[in-house]
Amino acid sequence: MRTRRWPTRSIGITVGLLACLAEPAAQAQSQSPTQSTPTPWRETSTPEEQALDAAAFEGVQATLATPQFADVDSAVVVLRGRVVYRFYRDGEPDKLRDTQSASKSALSALLGTAIAQGRIA
User: Fold this and answer.
1) What's the CA gap between 65 and 52, in Å, rounded?
2) 3-state secondary structure 22-72
3) In a domain, 60, yes or no
4) Residue 16 pLDDT > 60
5) What is the pLDDT of residue 37?
6) Of residues 87 and 13, more confidently modeled
7) Domain count across the chain
8) Residue 27 has what pLDDT?
9) Which residues fall within 8 angstroms of residue 108, CB to CB, at 6 or more apart?
10) d(CA 19, CA 5)
């Protein structure tokens, strides 16, 4: 039986973009035009502060550290504009990642979701 492998070495962009889709419209409506918007994803939070199960992230960390997921270089989860989880196999968050075609898939998923939610006509 063939083991399914991830199609890209980095799932960070895909996970981050999909996770942040949940709240952008609400955030945009609640900000006045004069408010300064922080640089995206520079703010951090903990799973507990976001009412998430911290043990689940520990499980993700353990899973990503296994040889089966050796092709995954990084993963980032962003919720409500705050980074709640980061995984960097090499420990270097500022290193450029080879995402190949992952951004096209993520953008397609985001666009489809936005259309389905009526955010784009």
Assistant:
1) 21
2) CCHHHHHHHCCCCCCCCCCCCCECCCCCCCCCHHHHHHHHHHHCCHHHCCC
3) yes
4) no
5) 54
6) 87
7) 1
8) 47
9) none
10) 22
pLDDT tens per residue across span 37-75: 555 567 888 888 888 888 888 998 999 989 998 888 888
Structural domain containing residue 66: 12-18+39-116
Banded model confidence at residue 79, pLDDT cuts 50, 70, 90: confident
121, part of any domain: no
CA dist 82 and 99 (Å) reads: 22
- This prediction's pTM: 0.51
Q: Is residue 31 part of a domain?
A: no
Nearest to 45, CA basis, from 29, 63, 30, 23: 23
| Residue 6 included in any domain | no
- Token pair for 84: 């709640």
**Residue the block writes with tokens 């960390």:** 61
